[in-house]
């Protein structure tokens, strides 16, 4: 498929012009990355965002695969001498892979079937006679095919064999397949029943023990739950569908008026549907349901991950991090304002040791020694006991110190990794975990990129979806977040650098190695000396790399070096010296710029000039600092402290199809059901809140026995 054809198809889907798509495809084919195109080629794309560009990238890949498959199918059919002009046109006009496969089905090499046996007996002409004849005698015609040599003993056997041929012909017809598939999607009901008791005894799938729901209304999370229970052997799952309308449709299209074989054809059509079409279409419909559900689950995971990565960092604070445990004690790590490890220790404030006095003494000494300002507590095993201990300890310390519970999902994965071993070879696994907990509070993005995104725990049924598609989506999200924030090239780890536009793992390591040789980078131009960082890579990555306190203030902005000459002219026009960029006087002049006129004078696009001015107004800006700051605490909360209608502040920890989990300081997060998020209609919780957001909630329901709390965001009047 030519680029113009692809561009036209994609443009229709995105409701943009073909020219925008063509120019974007050209940039992608040249090796440009999605973040680079979205940020630095706005004039070429017409201001397309990252999601639109990624959609174009995925669709181009799909359409090229489709074109390749079309060519392959045409070749295979032609080799059988069965390719007609009409069939070739149908294949070339197909817009979906499923359509191509439906058209190829009749020509696909099959295992030996009832129909192939009948064909070997020479019964194809009889099958054609049954389909076409409106006059004559069927029994008399069928008797002509009786043959001891071919194994046709009677006219009835001949008719049965011909019926088998017709049944398979109907089942292979692409129009029939497409119609039945669509009808099944609209009208089938999914029915589940209990097959075995759940080994855990927890009755996780109890609601599905006797359950039915129209396929067209199945929510994605219910599809994945049913799939998992079926896989675990807990449920039987089937589709129920009234076959009468389908058989009537087939009869209208396959039985001629006044046909002499109408009854036999009805039987053949029913056999073709029930034996061949229905089981295959049920698998296809279940597959389509799963594909749609996986798409939604991956989307939710990706959105949650992006918000988690972009949580506001807690900068310029000395942090004492605790990785709670019972028997082995709480591992402790003190980190300075930049995340540098100062000291590690182990304390035992929790059962069975309960050495609270000793733990208090050790932690107090560390607090005083390093001027600790915040304590970060991992939310895993023994977290609440550790939190209670810390809250009590802080009441006895004459310093302004807060604490915060940090989601430690994935910290154990990181701490046992090769990367952590290289970073902290002298620490044990738990001590590395404590460092990770503290650092993810100080700079969530820089720390979380070291962990496989699937281990971070902000998804829904992430283990039940296509792992390759999930990995691709999460990789894109991490790259997008890293490039959105920008990276300090003098402090970034190889783990962070490898997500910068155009940079590979090896180049990331080379950047760090060169940095160690130089002491630090003082200009972006020095990165051209890094081994394997060629001209194309430099073009793609350099705008996302920052050098604070470098020789050129522009190196600490998102302005690409290719625009430095235009910036020089702009500053000259405004009478601003380079060392005055951050001054209030310079900002006032920049705000008065007429973008349209100045863009023409500088011979650059208006979008590029707008971005340049924005970057000059806020050099060194970290966009995350404009988001919700972490919610620090002074005292612990117990479920018995709650009462209905109580107002609380909490942090959104996870967003799923049916609601939002909010950390209000209890062992388990409270749930705000989707119906309690807003008084207006909510299509999905992601439309209202995001991971890391600080929200005000009211206690709606309390189940002390199960440790569950229902919350509402509708106000105290919503509490009954």
From TrEMBL:
Coiled-coil residue windows: 73-100
Domain S1 motif, chain residue ranges per copy: 645-714
GO molecular function: mRNA binding; structural constituent of ribosome
CC annotations in GO: cytoplasm
Keywords noted in UniProt: Coiled coil
Superkingdom assignment: Bacteria
PANTHER family, sorted: 30S RIBOSOMAL PROTEIN S1, S1 RNA-BINDING DOMAIN-CONTAINING PROTEIN 1
Name of the protein this chain belongs to: RNA-binding transcriptional accessory protein
